[in-house]
Design brief:
Blueprint lengths: L9 E6 L4 E8 L3 E9 L1 H4 L7 H23 L12 E7 L3 H17 L4 E5 H7 L5 E2 L15 E6 L4 E8 L2 E7 L5 H12 L5 H9 L23 H14 L17 H30 L3 E5 L6 H10 L16 H13 L19
Parallel strand pairs: 1-4, 3-6, 4-5, 7-10
Antiparallel strand pairs: 1-2, 2-3, 7-8, 8-9
The structure holds 5'-O-[(R)-(carboxyoxy)(hydroxy)phosphoryl]adenosine and zinc ion.
Length: 365
């Protein structure tokens, strides 16, 4: 087990991989001092998904004020908050090229001008590290009581990723399985579009599902030969076929015209039944992995970790207790990157060269 130096390490984290521009300050990989998030979500809603060019332009406009606010909140009344920062961490991938570029260029510039070490962070690893935060003075954050312990099973469920990862220690992990096609968050977003709910689909489908019958419709679960791999594209197609049949049409009926013909009840029932099956699919695999690998902790990470049905099913089916972090720390945020950056600094990872650090849009775990 690698030992963590308790060194009073304070890290500024910068995240800009998709449509959230965020900066946060974290101390010792567990104390949350600030987390400022600005999102360009509203600008993308009309298009039904994130438009990369619009996201990148928004990052440019807000990144400096977001960082200044993160420092001001973390160190109220301190004349030069930069004196309190030991290192800068930034998401270098995976994500949208233009979006990543804004965060990475900003972090590189600050690392040079403020003379701080710079740590390049993997966005998906960052999601897992949101679970290490367990203390804060900020209002409205419900953190975990204890930090997770190794070996640690992580169920990572976001708009771009669905994977099960076994962490033996910090930076020592094994990818047990991932999605073969769509990520689970992507399935929520696509199903929302089919049944006429707003983007992003995760929150709108789960809201609609509250008024629906989750066992009204049965949808198939992908039956793969690999125990820990996922597939969600078949489920999305099954939802489309069912919705077409419900309005008395066949598979040739255009998907974009389905929503206007569905009743409120049909929409809610489809949302609830889809959500139940999608969540059961990932919970089935997480429970299987728990039984095979007997981890000391299980964590959930990524935007879909905000889903209450996922939290409920895991509590019900895992034979161990499970603690969840704040919903605000599940979707993209700077705090998770600052936390991961603290562990890079405390475990002596090699800092990045601020004159040459590049973005890695396709970075995997
Ligand atoms: O982690 P994230 O903010 O961005 C990526 O790294 O992908 O995740 C965004 C995804 C979207 O697909 C969104 O629909 C989904 O997370 N999401 C949810 C919920 N809140 C966000 N999915 C299900 N239930 C939710 N409550
Ligand atoms: Zn994310």
């Amino acid at each position: 087990m690698r030992s963590v130096k308790i060194s009073g390490m304070t890290v500024l984290g910068i995240e800009s991989s998709c449509d959230e521009t965020s900066a946060a300050v974290v101390r010792d990989g567990r104390v949350l001092l600030s987390n400022v998030v600005s999102t360009s979500l509203d600008l993308h809603k009309a298009y039904g998904g994130v438009v990369p060019e619009i996201a990148a332009r928004s990052h440019i406009e807000v990144i400096t004020p977001v960082i200044e606010e993160a420092l001001a909140v973390a160190f109220p009344g301190v004349a030069n908050p930069w004196d309190e920062i030991d290192a800068i961490a930034v998401t270098c991938g995976a994500g949208l090229g233009g979006s990543l570029l804004v965060g990475v260029m900003t972090a590189r510039t600050l690392a040079i001008t403020k003379n701080k070490p710079l740590y390049a962070c993997n966005h998906v690893e960052g999601h897992v590290y949101a679970n290490f935060l367990n203390e804060t003075n900020l209002d409205n954050y419900q953190l975990r009581e204890k930090q997770p312990e190794f070996p640690l099973l992580a169920l990572i469920v976001s708009g771009g990723h669905s994977q099960l990862v076994l962490f033996k220690d910090h930076f020592n992990y094994e990818l047990l399985g991932r999605t073969r096609d769509d990520a689970i968050g992507e399935a929520f977003d696509k199903v929302a579009k089919i049944i006429g709910l707003p983007y992003p689909g995760g929150p709108s489908v789960s809201e609609s599902a509250k008024n629906g019958d989750a066992v009204k419709y049965s949808f198939p679960k992908a039956n793969l030969d690999h125990p820990y791999e996922f597939s969600f594209s078949g489920l999305k197609t099954a939802v489309l076929r069912l919705a077409q049949a419900e309005i008395g049409e066949d598979f040739t009926f255009p998907s974009f015209k389905v929503a206007e013909r569905l009743s409120e009840t049909q929409r809610n029932d489809i949302a609830a039944s889809f959500q139940r099956v999608a969540i059961e699919t990932v919970v089935d695999k997480a429970v299987k992995a728990y039984e095979q690998f007997a981890p000391k902790s299980v964590v959930i990470a990524g935007g879909v970790a905000a889903n209450q049905e996922l939290r409920r099913q895991l509590r019900e089916r895992l034979p161990c207790s499970i603690d969840y972090t704040d919903i605000k720390l599940c979707t993209d945020n700077g705090a998770m990157i600052a936390t991961l950056g603290c562990y890079h600094a405390m475990l002596d990872s090699e800092p990045a060269d601020p004159y040459s650090l590049q973005i890695q849009p396709n970075l995997s775990m």
